[in-house]
């Protein structure tokens, strides 16, 4: 099991042993710890229901709207405890989440969607319109569709819009939940390329939850693997990509040749027990 | 020729009544747009506003009893507006805050409860007798129209129409052009997403209830001036329902046009079809029209298209 992340001087976001309970009874996270370095791209991997989204929502505190509660552990951002802040305050401080399934404002135009991202900003029109241009530079497709209602744009465009909207808040870290969901492989790659460019050129830190392990490990520099609300493995992305167990369970390739799927469940259970 | 004048009068008076309906419907639209709640208490809010306004103006009110003087109209209206804002804040703190995560039907039930509480409060504070509200809107028919065009139209109704027009323009600018207005529309589309970009829902709800409280005040003033401030005022909320179905629950222009159609429609029906069926069509015509609309165009005339990507 992973050790509690050590607090490092450069770490931007530290989640320490948090437990999340929904509806006062359903225990979803059972002690998740992770650490995001300033300027890093960190991947949070795992199957459906492993607790990836919940971890992100615990950080951005969108849990509150879903009757979820962080009952144990701490979350610190830039060294300050942030776990009781509202999403509004978190966005002001530079933590913003792009939710799973895009969640664009359907009846607002593309441009209005982007402007809504700047809701918490107080630095005046000039700064906001500059950033609008910047977002259009990264996502030229959004510029073409600036006046159409977001509800009528394609899935890929909506994902771009969701990321662009988050950018408008001038965030330090973007919590990106499942950007590849329901998108064609080529589009997934396009989105990840933009994430990389944003990370390198604009210095935005990313914590992304992904089921597409191959893609995520290619673009991230560190990864955590969640299973049943626990971190079961973590390491440099390149090391994870080379790890035999990860290869087998998440990347669908195994060094030991083909194996019958009939035994896979029992085998997995045994493996997990050993890890 | 005389017949045409009569028809014109019927239509115009229908339009004016329609404007009055529209004023009430507007308040519904605002809250529904921003929170998906059908605010059953909207009619009572109009009543409450009118009662409070009367209290500031009249010598038999609380205000006079406590301070020994009454407020002039130009001060009493903003003061009542302030009361509506405070009311919105109190409602958010005591009711909505605890309901945010609940189902819409539960919120609807909460507003029904709110309607009863407000009505009771109004009764306890201000008494249940009919109060004449006079804020200086000229009464009676417009002499100018009567002399020049031989038309009989109430000045109050012209005044109400003008006020409604101004109100709609102001609201449209607010919703389309301002940061808060945009945030309101964003919240209407997707609560969670709005939350995720840092829109604070508590604040938005206070704002939207305040705005609709002020719209309720305008409606209360108009209806109060027309027929006195009385508790049956809260029932005009029921007339707003078909207006909303016609115009669409989410559209400000829809509320206006819907109101006008209902107003004109029921007057025309009363005059031309009424005698055939023994009258009183005015009471149910609006609902029949709404029913027809539900069958053929459920989102209303101006309702937001239900976006479905296939």
Written account of the structure:
- The complex is a heterodimer of chains A (275) and B (310).
- Chain A is an alpha/beta fold.
- Chain A folds into two domains: 11-105 and 169-236, Rossmann fold; 243-275, no CATH class.
- Helix content of chain A is 39%, strand content 25%.
- Chain A has eleven helices and ten strands.
- Chain A has helices at residues 52-60, 87-93, 110-117, 124-138, 140-144, 155-167, 185-202, 213-219, 237-242, 244-251, 264-274, and strands at residues 11-22, 26-37, 41-45, 68-77, 80-81, 95-98, 173-177, 205-210, 222-227, 230-236.
- Chain A has a six-stranded mixed beta sheet with strand order 6-7-8-3-9-10, sandwiched between helices. Chain A has a four-stranded antiparallel beta sheet with strand order 2-1-4-5, with helices on one face.
- In chain A, a hairpin with a 2-residue loop joins β9 and β10 (230-236).
- In chain A, α3 runs parallel beside α6 (155-167).
- Residues 1-9 of chain A have low confidence and may be disordered.
- By secondary structure, chain B is mostly helical.
- Chain B has one domain (6-296): ABC transporter involved in vitamin B12 uptake, BtuC, CATH 1.10.3470.
- Chain B has helices spanning 2-35, 42-57, 62-67, 73-94, 104-126, 143-149, 155-177, 179-189, 191-196, 201-227, 236-247, 252-277, 281-296.
- The chains are: A alpha/beta (275), B mainly alpha (310).
């Amino acid at each position: 099991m992973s050790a509690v992340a050590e607090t490092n001087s450069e770490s931007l976001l530290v989640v320490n042993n948090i437990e999340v309970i929904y509806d006062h009874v359903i225990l979803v996270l059972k002690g998740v710890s992770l650490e995001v370095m300033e300027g890093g791209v960190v991947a949070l991997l795992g199957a459906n229901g492993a607790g990836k989204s919940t971890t992100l929502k615990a950080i951005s505190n969108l849990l509150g709207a879903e009757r979820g509660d962080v009952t144990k552990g701490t979350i610190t951002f830039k060294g300050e405890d942030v776990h009781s802040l509202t999403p509004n305050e978190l966005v002001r401080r530079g933590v913003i989440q792009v939710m799973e399934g895009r969640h664009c404002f359907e009846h607002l135009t593309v441009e209005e969607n982007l402007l809504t991202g700047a809701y918490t900003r107080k630095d005046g029109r000039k700064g906001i319109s500059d950033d609008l241009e910047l977002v259009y530079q990264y996502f030229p497709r959004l510029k073409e569709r600036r006046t159409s209602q977001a509800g009528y744009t394609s899935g890929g465009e909506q994902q771009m819009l969701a990321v662009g909207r988050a950018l408008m808040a001038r965030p330090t870290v973007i919590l990106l939940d499942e950007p590849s969901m329901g998108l064609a492989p080529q589009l997934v790659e396009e989105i990840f390329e933009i994430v990389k460019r944003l990370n390198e050129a604009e210095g935005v830190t990313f914590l992304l939850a992904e089921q597409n392990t191959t893609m995520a490990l290619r673009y991230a520099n560190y990864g955590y693997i969640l299973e049943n609300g626990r971190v079961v493995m973590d390491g440099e992305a390149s090391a994870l990509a080379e790890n035999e167990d990860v290869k087998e369970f998440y990347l669908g390739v195994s060094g030991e040749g083909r194996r019958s799927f009939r035994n896979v469940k029992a085998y997995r259970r045994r493996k997990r027990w050993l890890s | 020729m005389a017949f045409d004048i009569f028809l014109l009068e019927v239509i115009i008076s229908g339009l004016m009544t329609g404007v009055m309906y529209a004023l009430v419907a507007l308040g519904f639209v605002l809250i529904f747009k921003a929170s998906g709640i059908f605010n059953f208490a909207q009619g009572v809010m109009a009543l409450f506003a009118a009662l409070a306004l009367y209290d500031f103006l009249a010598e038999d009110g609380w205000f006079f009893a406590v301070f020994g003087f009454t407020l002039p109209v130009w001060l009493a209206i903003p003061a009542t507006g302030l009361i509506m804002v405070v009311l919105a804040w109190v409602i958010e703190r005591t009711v909505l805050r605890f309901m945010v995560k609940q189902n819409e039907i539960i919120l609807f039930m909460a507003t029904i409860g709110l309607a009863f509480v407000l009505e009771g409060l109004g009764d306890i504070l201000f008494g249940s007798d009919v109060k004449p509200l006079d804020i200086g809107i000229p009464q009676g028919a417009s002499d100018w129209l009567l002399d020049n065009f031989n038309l009989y139209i109430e000045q109050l109704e012209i005044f109400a129409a003008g006020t409604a027009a101004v109100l709609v323009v102001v609201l449209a600018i607010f919703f389309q052009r301002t940061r808060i207005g945009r945030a309101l529309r964003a919240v209407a589309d997707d609560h969670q997403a709005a939350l995720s970009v840092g829109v604070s829902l508590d604040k938005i709800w206070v704002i939207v209830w305040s705005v609709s409280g002020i719209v309720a005040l305008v409606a209360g003033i108009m209806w109060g001036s027309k027929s006195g401030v009385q508790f049956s005022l809260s029932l005009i909320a029921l007339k707003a329902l078909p207006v909303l179905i016609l115009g669409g629950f989410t559209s400000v222009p829809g509320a206006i046009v819907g109101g006008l159609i209902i107003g004109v429609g029921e007057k025309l029906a009363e005059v031309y079809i009424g005698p055939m069926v023994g009258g009183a069509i005015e009471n149910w015509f609006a609902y029949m029209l709404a029913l027809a609309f539900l069958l053929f165009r459920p989102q209303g005339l101006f309702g937001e298209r239900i976006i479905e990507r296939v």
